[in-house]
């Protein structure tokens, strides 16, 4: 039984939860983070000195950083169907996982904080417009990739990369502004919605 520390509304915690569903890994989750047990508590800092969620405990093994965690789970629990051992196939998946973390996530940060979280520090109209334009540009990149593959972000089949990317797509549709028509992204969202893990921990009413 894996122990997962982090609130269920966190997009990074949801990566881990969805991965566990895909791989059939039993887990128990504890609420830590905003509104719950504080991550600057000594007990939590002993697990993750960055004071951030998620953290997992697998026996005596402690791990933080969500993308590292989902890769570990796939490696440790027979996830070759969604994270193959072939170096080139794996690199293609890792490419999109890292793109989601470094480029796509960064683009939606300001609009999400402004429009969903209603953060007082994120209400500058020019910064919001720039953020939406940047986010839209990256979603256009994703749309073209999905149109090319005809299926999922790294190819025709669902892979580990679709978990972080799919959660960002859910955030795109859950943030209230006028969205351009991205047909391939919309079709992708519907395909992901056929997966139990996504409906439980992605398209569940939480952006």
TrEMBL record:
Superkingdom as given in the UniProt entry: Bacteria
CDD domains xref list: GST_C_2 (cd03180), GST_N_2 (cd03047)
Gene3D superfamilies: 1.20.1050.10, Glutaredoxin
All copies of domain GST N-terminal, residue ranges: 1-81
PROSITE patterns the record matches: GST_CTER, GST_NTER
InterPro entries assigned: Glutathione-S-Trfase_C-like, Glutathione-S-Trfase_C_sf, Glutathione_S-Trfase, Glutathione_S-Trfase_N, Thioredoxin-like_sf
Every GST C-terminal domain range: 86-207
UniProt xrefs under Pfam families: GST_N_2 (PF13409)
Record-given protein name: Glutathione S-transferase
Phylogenetic placement of the source organism: Bacteria, Pseudomonadati, Pseudomonadota, Gammaproteobacteria, Pseudomonadales
């Amino acid at each position: 039984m894996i122990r997962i520390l982090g609130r269920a509304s966190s997009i990074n915690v949801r990566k881990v939860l969805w991965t566990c569903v895909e791989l059939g890994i039993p887990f128990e989750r504890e609420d830590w983070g905003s509104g719950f047990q504080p991550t600057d508590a000594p007990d939590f800092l002993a697990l993750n000195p960055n004071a951030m969620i998620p953290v997992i405990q697998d026996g005596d093994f402690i791990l933080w950083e969500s993308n590292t965690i989902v890769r570990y789970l796939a490696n440790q629990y027979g996830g070759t169907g969604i994270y193959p051992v072939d170096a080139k196939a794996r690199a293609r998946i890792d490419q999109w996982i890292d793109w989601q973390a470094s480029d796509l996530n960064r683009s939606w940060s300001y609009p999400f904080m402004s429009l969903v979280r209603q953060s007082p520090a994120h209400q500058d109209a020019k910064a919001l417009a720039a953020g939406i334009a940047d986010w839209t540009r990256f979603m256009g990149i994703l749309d073209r990739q999905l149109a090319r593959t005809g299926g999922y972000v790294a190819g025709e089949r669902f892979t580990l990369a679709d978990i972080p990317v799919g959660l960002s797509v859910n955030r795109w549709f859950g943030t209230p502004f006028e969205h351009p028509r991205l047909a391939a992204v919309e079709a992708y969202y519907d395909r992901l919605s056929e997966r139990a893990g996504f409906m439980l921990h992605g398209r569940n009413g939480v952006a």
